[in-house]
Q: What sequence folds into this?
């Protein structure tokens, strides 16, 4: 049955009524890239792509990054506009660092401003920042010790979620995960051995002193011993390397 792109009769199929917004955007991109393939002067063209991943799922967004990456070497210039930082960061990583430039447009009091965008800074994850902060403390740099203490448990949680995504699912708290680990010791589906579980218990119990959900009354004033904090920081970094 033919599908109309124009305004259809009531009840008649159309792209608007039969395709999701993601499907429509994907189809529009496919037609756009196909049209470029037929352009005999493609190498001289400046191609502007505006917010191409709106309503696209992760797979389609990744495919769009791939297609734009292939296009870059075939045209004079590619300009990509988007609100989606993860998409732009992925595209940035695919691009020759001698040929790329990134700018950000920000709202100002009476309009907008344009500034250079440090994409590499946005590529650093919260887990990376925590790790660097803890390593700085171990090296002897001047840092806020309470911030170090506060970041120990999130560092463990981030590591465990990546290391054991099947068992430590989003939304699960660290306590129940530790319980599952204990139940499975010496079982075919063991997650951590008893030595690791015991160390995780010690690290978690220390880190819990500095979190509102586990020490609501005293997490802000919990005394910090420098030697003890240094020991637990080193042990947390060692555990998160396993």
A:
């Amino acid at each position: 049955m033919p599908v109309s792109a124009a305004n259809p009769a009531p009840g008649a199929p159309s792209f608007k009524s039969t395709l999701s917004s993601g499907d429509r955007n994907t189809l529009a991109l496919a037609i756009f890239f196909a049209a470029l393939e037929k352009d005999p002067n493609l190498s001289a063209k400046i191609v502007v792509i505006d917010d191409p991943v709106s309503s696209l799922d992760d797979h389609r967004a990744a495919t769009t990054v791939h297609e734009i990456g292939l296009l870059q070497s075939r045209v004079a210039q590619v300009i990509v506009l988007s609100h989606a930082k993860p998409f732009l960061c992925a595209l940035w990583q695919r691009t020759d660092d001698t040929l790329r430039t990134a700018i950000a447009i920000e709202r100002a009091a009476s309009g907008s401003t344009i500034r250079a965008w440090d994409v590499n800074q946005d590529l650093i994850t919260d887990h990376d920042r925590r790790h660097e902060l803890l390593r700085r403390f171990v090296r002897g740099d001047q840092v806020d010790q309470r911030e170090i203490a506060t970041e120990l448990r999130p560092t463990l949680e981030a590591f465990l979620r990546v290391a054991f995504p099947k068992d430590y699912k989003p939304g699960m708290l660290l306590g129940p995960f530790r319980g599952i680990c204990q139940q499975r010791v010496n079982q075919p589906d063991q997650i951590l051995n008893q030595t690791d579980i015991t160390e995780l218990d010690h690290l978690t119990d220390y880190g819990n002193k500095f979190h509102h959900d586990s020490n609501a009354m005293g997490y802000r004033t919990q005394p910090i011993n420098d030697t003890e904090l240094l020991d637990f920081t080193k042990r947390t970094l060692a555990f998160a390397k396993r």
